[in-house]
Amino acid sequence: MAGKVDRAASPRRRSAAAAQSQAGRQKEKEQSPSPRRTSAAKPQAKSFATQPDGRAIPPESPSRPLELLSLLVFMLAAIFAALSYKHGARSQHVTSHLILLAAVSVAVFFATMRVIPVCVSYHMRKNLVGRDINKKGTQGGEGSVPEAIGLAPGIVLVSGALVYQTLMLTLRTDTTPYDEAWHMEFNAGVVSVLFMVLLGFVDDVLDIPWRAKIVLPVFSALPLLASYRHGTDVVVPPPLRAYVPEVPGISVDGILYLGPIYKFYMVLVVVFCSNSINILAGCNGVEAGQSFVIGVGALVLNLLNVCSDDKNTAANHMLSASMLAPFLAATYALLMHNWYPSRVFVGDTYTYLAGMCLGAAGVLGHFSETMLIFFAPQVFNFIYSVPQLLKIVPCPRHRLPTFDTKTGLLTATPNYNLINLLLHIFGPCTEKDLTIRVLVVQVLSIAFGFGVRRALYELGWVL
Amino acid sequence: MAGKVDRAASPRRRSAAAAQSQAGRQKEKEQSPSPRRTSAAKPQAKSFATQPDGRAIPPESPSRPLELLSLLVFMLAAIFAALSYKHGARSQHVTSHLILLAAVSVAVFFATMRVIPVCVSYHMRKNLVGRDINKKGTQGGEGSVPEAIGLAPGIVLVSGALVYQTLMLTLRTDTTPYDEAWHMEFNAGVVSVLFMVLLGFVDDVLDIPWRAKIVLPVFSALPLLASYRHGTDVVVPPPLRAYVPEVPGISVDGILYLGPIYKFYMVLVVVFCSNSINILAGCNGVEAGQSFVIGVGALVLNLLNVCSDDKNTAANHMLSASMLAPFLAATYALLMHNWYPSRVFVGDTYTYLAGMCLGAAGVLGHFSETMLIFFAPQVFNFIYSVPQLLKIVPCPRHRLPTFDTKTGLLTATPNYNLINLLLHIFGPCTEKDLTIRVLVVQVLSIAFGFGVRRALYELGWVL
Description:
The structure is a homodimer. The first copy, chain A, is mainly alpha-helical.
């Protein structure tokens, strides 16, 4: 995303990537001896490694087998963590479904790895590309990097989720705890994610107006709300009850009957999540990285609860896990191409789909409050950015750090976002280290979220 | 679609539209005095009427009020036809749901009318355009026509369907006959259509390979199959039973227990439908026109059955109607811009979504056999095209008729498709008349479909 990042700051201006892409087209015309011959050539998969873009990174990095192994270990560990944690009455179904889910997720990972190079060659051919602004002045900042590659994980993970659902329904017996209502919610989640993939890709291609970016996620949140079968009542924690007045029909005996207010809150959560990943962006791997960390945190929470004694809680967390596992597998494959130095940019396609997938998992899994704590860096980044977004403070075209070609380090610019704040507090660093700093903050937020849950549980409150 | 029509014949060659779009980009660069100024200009809605494209058609044609009136009359007529036909036990729910559906559909129509000009300006800005090949040599063939405008009806109809579902679920009571399983199937239909909108738009932008066009509809058909809750058994009509051998487990007492074979058949139906509208294309208004006629036929069939005594039949036809009514409203709005002479092209975005919407309605409404009869012109066109598609007979880049600039008439070329066949049999005609000829054939197929149903009903057979 570095190429066209942070358009929040300047929605009316043409993005740098678009302008450069036009230059790229012009260049392509000059380079090709005959347009007909160029157009007739079939795009080659993996041709991006041989593109004259000044990058010498092979498509398969040396550490690939190690990373593959870590993925498989992660998947297996997740299954066994869940199974060894609790053996409830439904554990047999949970076991078989988790094994199925793990198998589909591994398939999603390999499929995404295969589809990304295909997407790259098609996007390069149509000049859907950007430039790496944080490497300006070096060899890495010269070439064009394919944009909107989030399309590959998007299509693959939705296909994977649908295959998983088909297998679930084919194999189900009368005792399976996941009924039609469960699948209705699952389909609602798929609709939401798919809508965001479409919206994101349209945005990458057409640069849609900002009002559409706020309005369309509301529509895509509708199936989540419509399918939301459970209570919208909130139990007020005992120490706070003294401060909550009794209102007939709304606040009775320490229970808030929120109804439409709660649904409105859910819409806000979904709209916020789907846009928030897009705002905390700007260095290689940070969009996919933060999404991966949040997703792992949420999946661990799911796996701790899929064997819950409460039937609804168990089913809800299974639903959330069913969305998150393929998402994490696809994201991991994307990260292997998007990690510093990026060979692909994820595009709005990925940031919207990731935000929506995490938000929908939080809503459908009934832990949207915890999810918001996991999203603490994004919430902070959004609030911190508001003065510039509202133009109270001058807002330049890009709010990225400055790259020093001599030292190879990024230094803070006086812009109000988390990335510059981290550079300001901890000093200049390389782009890779900056991404790692953001991910460390993200991991701390996840840990804090689990801590809050534990503390509230100890106190006997509900979260 | 005329600009990039019939790529079936030449999947490996660059489409004319793509080549022209590159020329268009070049042109844009030359015309604009300063790229910055051009890019900073906010696209104006309805600016396409003032584009220097040699067309002088105002965005609002004089007959618009009449057409609006006809839409409203059509909607109301459909409701009352259904209500006066039968008054079953569930008629109260049916009435309220049909009124809700009609209201949402009218809103979808007006929203699509508003969104199309916005899409047009964005697509023009990014040179997502084609040329009108059937008008080559005249003023109308000179300018660029915005492509892929099917995106507007696609996004609006999906949003409309989701609003409709939300209202349904908000207003439902304990006696509402549409349960979670119904909504699971509804969501499955939305997933399928949305997947096709995404696939179509990606194809319009990137020209995806043919294998993807076959494989991806299979994935998008999965939720339909997974949600398909009803029998896959087929009752063999009595006169044919003598010819069907008894096979234990598969064919017993005149009933075929098809199971997976029937599901495979459904996948074929969906994949065929989603591609077939795309193949029968090539003159202004023919893609949206044929889809509209088929959709009206299917909706009439639904409305005759929403009060059926059989509870499942009634619910299935309501499900199909819930998808078709917003689809028809959006298609009607698109037709008002796409009818001869086209101010917009519908793009693969529309042809895929239309094919999938009709196919999914047939599968979810449990009348896929009737739907295939409605698709008779598309089936014929596909079979008739096979010799050229398989390159048994030489296949030129485009299989369109020849346009005579002197007479203004289209004449047949020796290509194997329905459009040329109609010109060959009935002689040269204008492009508008050619579209009308195709639509007449389509109407006859619908009438034939109803005739077959009636005949089988009289004979006591099941369809």
